[in-house]
Amino acid sequence: MSDDSDRSGGRAAAPVFAPDPVSLAHLELILSGAYPLSGFMTREEAASVAKHGRLPDGTAWPVPVTLPVPDELADAERLVLTDPEGAPLAELAVSERWWSGPDPAEGAAGPAGHGHRLAGEVRFLQPAVYGALRPLRLAPGEVRAQRELAGDAEIPVLAVVADRPLHHRELHQVRAAAAELAGSGRAEILVIVDVPVESAGIAPVVLAAEPLLPAPVRFVAATLPRGSAEGAGALPPDRADLLRAHVAHAYGATLVLVAGASGGASGETLSGGPVPVVRPAEWAYDTEAGQWRRAEEVAPAHAAPLPDAAEVEELLARGRPLPSWFTPARVAAELARLRPPRTERGLTVFFTGLSGSGKSTIARGVAEGIRRSGRTLSLLDGDVVRRLLSAGLTFSRADRDLNIRRIGYVAAEITRHGGVAVCAPIAPYAATRAEVRAMVEETGDFFLVHVATPLEVCEARDRKGLYAKARAGEIPEFTGISDPYEEPADADLVVTTEDRTVEESVAEVLAALRAGGWLPADPS
Ligand SMILES: Nc1ncnc2c1ncn2[C@@H]1O[C@H](COP(=O)(O)OS(=O)(=O)O)[C@@H](OP(=O)(O)O)[C@H]1O
Ligand SMILES: Nc1ncnc2c1ncn2[C@@H]1O[C@H](COP(=O)(O)OP(=O)(O)O)[C@@H](O)[C@H]1O
């Protein structure tokens, strides 16, 4: 520690930082006592956990719990950690600053993320109030106290970590596992609803199953981190399950059931955690008997094929009912509320393409067609955006990104309220487009149209004379000439314009929206 930090004393001097969603999820679990950890890990701890699933002292722990920070905070002695809105949650006393990045000595198993990390103990400052489902976000200590009060402290607890709906199949799995655990006595079912911090997500759908489970049953909400800063993408399934076991253990679980688990063999027990994690036995709907049974008791010819998550999503998107043998009515009703049919769902139609490719022209026609179908619509026209929302921004990469993020933010809000946003910026960078897609898809649907007019055609059109100027060097950083355009690999529709009329291009987009279910099949 430097002298500076000793002298700074009060909290006001510590810089303030809002951690990324993964670190924030870790922080909440540390603060609630759901993790047996007191802070963020050092380099040695994170590397040991990543490689061996153990801390250097031998304690089993499945995932690195680290705090990535931006360059400007890399030297901090202390840090006030806040929620995304800036309200302080905890103070970090930094014990080690480290760099996570490729290190040849670590080999492939080494930390995969790049960047600065801060390690150290965290001290609770004030309870979190942001985000959704606060009343359900009980700390393990509170749950244990409730159990004591109800006189249920001694009965075994089957924990179910649910990040997806409990359909009939999962409910049978849970009831069977609870009955087995109870034996001749009683067992509590504790459903840990795993939802993102910001939104209630699937929670109402999971909660709808309450009357279908035998008492005593209890629901709590928690956010289990989806990935790790120290590894690319999602956590490996076993590590994620072990993390669930640790959290469930803190809540008093005797056994953890991963309902509807996709990875691993059914009936298998994962050891190495503080409590066993069981991947439940498979159940099937017997079409001949008209009832659910353990899969091994059902003749394969009579086992109804289960719709997978994508098929369920498509049925909901089309406003069709889920089969009643598959989903209990009350669960289906909540699902339909959460995922209304596409004709009622908010939508962002996002055009991308070179200057002069035809984005504005097609977007105008599409907007008119959507309006005629009766939907509420906002056209975020490129020029208007640049004049108002993004006034003063240049065409540097940073400013283009800011421009696109602003458009994305507004589009996501329109989408959240069930409207349609039609946007038509160049949006040359794939990463920024992906960010916007992710932002919008949290609140509704996103449809990316690549107006793939070749540069030569755009340049020949040169409606505004900009290409000529760009070629003459009078406009720097001009997309396609002196600045990049990254072709989308994730377009939902690619349109060409050099070989068809404006009307045909507009009709093509409207037809795709109709085919996808966003517009009524029969245009009025
Ligand atoms: N350097 C440079 N590069 C590209 N385009 C330029 C540039 N300078 C001005 N213009 C004019 O600005 C319009 C593009 O603005 P966007 O907001 O859509 O661009 S971006 O998405 O932020 O990259 C674009 O309009 P459209 O032709 O409608 O695409 C141009 O007319
Ligand atoms: N099939 C088509 N779709 C869209 N625009 C077309 C088509 N065929 C020719 N054009 C012409 O191309 C130009 C595209 O300009 P604009 O819509 O302003 O492009 P952008 O918004 O991508 O800069 C217009 O003059 C338009 O009339």
From TrEMBL:
Enzyme's top EC category: transferase
SUPFAM superfamilies, alphabetized: P-loop containing nucleoside triphosphate hydrolases, PUA domain-like
Superkingdom assignment: Bacteria
Domain APS kinase: 345-495
Residues of the ATP-sulfurylase PUA-like domain: 20-98
GO annotation, cellular component aspect: cytoplasm
Gene3D superfamilies the UniProt entry points to: P-loop containing nucleotide triphosphate hydrolases (3.40.50.300), Sulfate adenylyltransferase (3.10.400.10)
Keyword ATP-binding listed: yes
Phosphoprotein found in the keyword field: yes
Pathway stated in the Swiss-Prot or TrEMBL entry: Sulfur metabolism; hydrogen sulfide biosynthesis; sulfite from sulfate: step 2/3
Residues given in the record as ATP binding sites: 353-360
Keywords: ATP-binding, Kinase, Nucleotide-binding, Nucleotidyltransferase, Phosphoprotein, Transferase
EC numbers on record: 2.7.1.25
UniProt catalytic activity: adenosine 5'-phosphosulfate + ATP = 3'-phosphoadenylyl sulfate + ADP + H(+)
Cross-referenced InterPro entries: APS, APS_kinase_dom, ATP-Sase_PUA-like_dom, P-loop_NTPase, PUA-like_sf, Sulf_AdTrans/APS_kinase
Any one GO MF annotation of this record: sulfate adenylyltransferase (ATP) activity
Role, per record: Catalyzes the synthesis of activated sulfate.
Name of the featured protein: Adenylyl-sulfate kinase
Species for this entry: Streptomonospora nanhaiensis
Gene label: cysC
